[in-house]
Amino acid sequence: MIEHDVLDAGLGDADDDDFDLSEVFDSQLPDNRYLDRELSWLAFNQRVLELAEDASVPVLERANFLAIFASNLDEFFMVRVAGLKRRIITGLAVPTNVGRPPQEVLADISADAHALQLRHADVWASQVRPALAEAGIDVISWSALEDEERARLSDYFQRQIFPVLMPLAVDPAHPFPYISGLSLNLAIRIRNARTGRQEFARLKVPPMLPRFVDVSRHGDTVRYLPLEELIANHLEDLFPGMEILDHHAFRLTRNEDVVIEEDETENLIQALEAELLRRRFGPPIRLEVGDDMDELTLDLLISELDITVQEVYRLPGPLDLRGLFDLSRIDRPDLHYPPHVPTTAVAFQPADQNGRADIFAAIRRADVLVHHPYESFATSVQAFLEQAAKDPHVLAIKQTLYRTSGDSPIVQALIDAAESGKQVLALVEVKARFDEAANIVWARKLEKAGVHVVFGLVGLKTHCKLALVIREEDGMLRSYSHIGTGNYNPKTSRIYEDFGLFTIDEQVGRDLTRLFNELSGYAIEKKFKRLLVAPLHLRKGLLRLIEKERRNALAGRPSSIRIKVNSMVDEQIIDALYRASQAGVPIDIWVRGICSLKPGLEGMSESIRVRSILGRYLEHSRLFMFENDGDPQVYIGSADMMHRNLDRRVEALVRVVAPVHLRELSDLFELAMSDKTSSWWLDSEGAWARHSLDADGKPLVDIQDRTMSNVQRRRRARAVR
């Protein structure tokens, strides 16, 4: 059945029936053919750090990259490291694509993470902080303050900070307090002046207060003091009659992965809410401490938190550089990337400057491919759903919601549609990691408005990005479809690079109708014409496409494979690409994050190139392009090449067919892989080398800047016509 479905998806002709996909895995490939996925992720975060080290990047953007690095690493520990540790403790099989003992993998992660965190701290102290100071944004210490400034800040402390602080003593009457994950804390040793006894106390730095306190402002020159320094220099006010012996900053990371056995629970929402409550009390997995912390205090923390020495990270202050997100938002245009205002896609531009585009009329004329954030989300996807909500001819709207913003106009459009009497189905994925609580809130709000809310299939996350509008036209029903690579989130659409396809193609409409019916029902079984859908069809469909390129190469016919994803990890896909490379297929992989594939190895992957691009926008789109003997098969969609995407999620790729769109995607890929474009290159040992300057030391092409220019040029050309 599955094989028949894939053939119907346009992946082969009748003579493809002799394809035996078992052959894809028959070749004798070496055992050590994969790069470790966890170490590859750390290498990705190193690339983020290299952007912070780049003096050509505006300094507030460099501070932002430091904050992104810190936030990324927190999530890596909370999920990936925590998952490995949990499986070791519980005796579950630990998935590893390199065949090494999990304890050895954890040791390597620890070594690399320690080195990266020290490098991260040094970039702040020796590069970004001085560069900010030179630009008039100075983060100073208490010792650098004038007497008048200290007095003023002491007054601020008494009025605005002291009332919300909660010092917690540790003694026979007060057990060691619970330390919340990712909180910044002060470990304080004090001596009772009356008894002479030494005590320990913990003080949490309030997360709701600004991390950097204003000291002075004169025009564009501003000075800040870290909040923890202000608190640390007023500890006598918190412990009157006590002698302050010492204080040190520390920060704990806990296991915050959520595990739900859906087939064993009757109410997914209730089970998820209980698991979210449990998440707060997950076991510790990392302890960050100031490098000046004494051994007595450290030993106490290790003992009370039940953490190993390997999980302790000694770092120069300040800890928790996520606080730099606040600094990076300072309104200094000269210290940011030049502003870019997304343009309205040419197809959706109104004929009259003062008018409003008819989105449905534009889609009827031809398929529309939009490229965010270069082209506006608000005037395309958002406008599409808002027009559908108001249009009296629209009878039904069906949509998936994986992550959306807190004040989402997308959700409001669905509510407006339901309140106007339309049939509205929202498939809300309440298991979207770290957005679970927000999605539960949205699901309940939608239900109250009369939207039919469903939560997908048991055991599967619904990760596909789909919207379907059913409209009555001349007595007939017509389907308007949108399939995207990114979430329906107006906020992230401004910084995430993604594609979306609008079409009235009847095959796509029928495909989405079947898929939505199955998502609100029980299983995905139907065949699809222009879609590849996981978990039943996508893996096999891609393997057949790769195998067909291999056979074309062996027969001397044109062949090539180009894939753009966030992660390339799945062993079956990688092995199929190795076999295609052995047959001589040119293969280009454009990956943002993890890549377990080894390129450029003689006899295995000589024809494979791997590039990575990071910049002001987060490269998020997924593209799959196959030469197919001169009849290109090109797909966009939501799936990365990971086990979870191919086997445990509902994902969807849609085939792009319009020649103008095929050229646009091909041109973009050629630019990304060009030696004249700034990017990172992966070698066969897993090392990434940055190529940002030409032989004369001049900057290479920034693909994101070039794409902005290309989009603006298309708009100007339309205006001239």
What is the share of helical residues?
25-40%
CATH topology title of the largest domain: Endonuclease, Chain A
* N-C termini distance: 51 Å
> Cα-atom Rg, whole angstroms?
28 Å
The geometry reads as globular
Q: Give the DSSP E fraction (strand runs of 2 or more residues).
A: 15-25%
> What count of helical segments does DSSP give?
20
Please give the number of β-strands: 27
| Low-confidence parts | 1-17, 260-266
What about the largest sheet?
A: 10 strands, mixed
Q: Tell me the name of the CATH homologous superfamily of the largest domain.
A: Endonuclease Chain A
What would you call the structural class? alpha/beta
Number of domains: 4
CATH architectural type of the largest domain: 2-Layer Sandwich
Chain-averaged pLDDT: 88
Tell me, what is the CATH class of the largest domain? Alpha Beta
Pfam families: PP_kinase, PP_kinase_C, PP_kinase_C_1, PP_kinase_N
Family: Belongs to the polyphosphate kinase 1 (PPK1) family.
InterPro entries: PLipase_D/transphosphatidylase, PP_kinase, PP_kinase_C_1, PP_kinase_middle, PP_kinase_middle_dom_sf, PPK_C_dom2, PPK_N_dom, PPK_N_dom_sf
Function: Catalyzes the reversible transfer of the terminal phosphate of ATP to form a long-chain polyphosphate (polyP).
